[in-house]
Design goal:
The protein has eleven helices and 13 strands. The chain is α+β, with helices and mostly antiparallel strands. The chain binds alpha-D-galactopyranose (GLA).
Length: 378
């Protein structure tokens, strides 16, 4: 979403110029799924579908307007508490709540505009949080860096919004770089960047199916991982070598074993994926992405018939290097790496195969890897 659009919307609604315009991107995750709340590795890239916010300080309560979702409940940045605001306002108000310890926050009026699909597993909530994090950082003069803002956004999501998620989405929206995927160790929060191989496009294959039960099933997966780790005496599944897991099979329930098996092998696949990317071994990238999807389907059980059909359609389409579901699962999108020169053929092939299998039309589009959240130049 362009800065000009949101600037104009702000002027129309509030009758004057905004003090600051920011944008925060959504993300895809290339590999490393359901590992971030287990201290493991993830490999996201920020995409050129973003949330933009134009804002200025005001006296009185904060008032936000979204082009798609309407006007928010008004709230006081200095006193808003968990459970007192509903809907999309929670992401912005929760950032005020999470940042309050870092300085004095002004109330604001703001306009939000987005071209990032919601509910497709592309982290629109983390993008809203990061966008408002940057707004308050600037207008409150807090002087925080993007990594700290991502940590505050994680606190907002887990303690204010109430989803017990990992930190991948906020870190991706905060710290990713143009043209690169970001390898993140979610235990140490160390990041490194890997350029995407020359001539490779990231293609989103959105099934547009809603992510039903995503909240409760997500928290349930996390609880099973934690109980497996506790039974095996490790602080998190990150610390569990595969051999130890295999040797301890009898100690766990079948479900705990299969969930843990996914997490432990997904960490190994992520490390191998990073190496394959470095060496430009596209065949290996494809095998690892397919292995990840199958593990999420069979052992972690977070895919859906639509996601499986989409992945299958992508694997068989011309120019596909690799494909898998991306994000929490239960619906949403697959990500594919595709030969740049064959994106149109790929989209055509994948769309046709998916339509035949599911009787529904997916949304397939190529995206660019972009920089993380930032203030737009005025
Ligand atoms: C959601 C969560 C992330 C991560 C993914 C699955 O996107 O917000 O923290 O757990 O699911 O990898």
């Amino acid at each position: 979403m362009s800065a000009e659009v949101v600037r104009r919307l702000f002027a129309e609604r509030f009758g004057g110029p905004a003090e600051v315009v920011v944008r925060a991107p959504g993300r895809v995750n290339l590999i490393g799924e359901h590992t971030d709340y287990n201290g493991g590795f993830v490999f996201p890239a920020a995409i050129d579908r973003t949330i933009s916010v134009a804002a200025r300080r005001t006296v009185g309560r904060s008032c936000l307007i979204s082009d798609a979702l309407g006007e928010s409940d008004a709230f006081d940045a200095a006193t808003v508490a968990p459970g007192t605001v509903a809907g999309w306002t929670r992401y912005a108000a929760g950032m005020a709540w999470a940042l309050r310890g870092d300085g004095t926050l002004p109330d604001i009026e703001a306009v939000v505009a987005s071209d990032l699909p919601m509910g497709s597993g592309l982290s629109s909530s983390a993008a809203i949080e990061m966008a408002f994090g940057v707004v308050w950082n600037v207008l409150g003069g807090l002087g925080l860096d993007n990594k700290t803002l991502a940590q505050r956004a994680h606190r907002c999501e887990t303690q204010f919004v109430g989803l017990n998620c990992g930190i991948m989405d906020m870190m991706a929206s905060a710290l990713c770089r143009e043209g690169c995927a970001m390898f993140l160790d979610t235990r140490s929060l160390e990041v490194s960047y890997a350029p995407l191989p020359e001539g490779t496009a990231i293609v989103l294959c959105d099934t547009k199916t809603p992510r039903e039960l995503a909240g409760s099933a997500y928290n349930d997966r996390r609880a099973t991982c934690e109980s497996a780790a506790a039974k095996l005496g490790v602080p998190s599944l990150r610390e569990l070598p595969l051999e130890r897991l295999l040797a301890a099979r009898e100690t766990l329930t079948d479900q705990e074993f299969r969930r843990a098996f996914h997490v432990v092998t997904e960490d190994l696949r992520s490390l191998q994926f990073a190496e394959a990317l470095r060496r430009g071994q596209t065949w290996r990238i494809g095998t690892l992405m397919r292995g990840s999807h199958d593990s999420l389907r069979l052992d972690y059980e977070v895919t859906s018939p639509a996601l499986d059909a989409m992945a299958e359609a992508a694997w068989n389409a011309p120019g596909c290097i690799g494909a898998r579901m991306t994000g929490a699962g239960f619906g949403g999108a697959c990500v594919a790496l595709v030969e740049q020169s064959r994106v149109a053929e790929f989209a055509e092939g994948a769309r046709t195969a998916y339509e035949l299998a599911m009787g529904a039309v997916p949304d397939i589009w190529a995206c660019q890897a972009v920089d993380g959240a930032r203030v737009e130049p005025s």
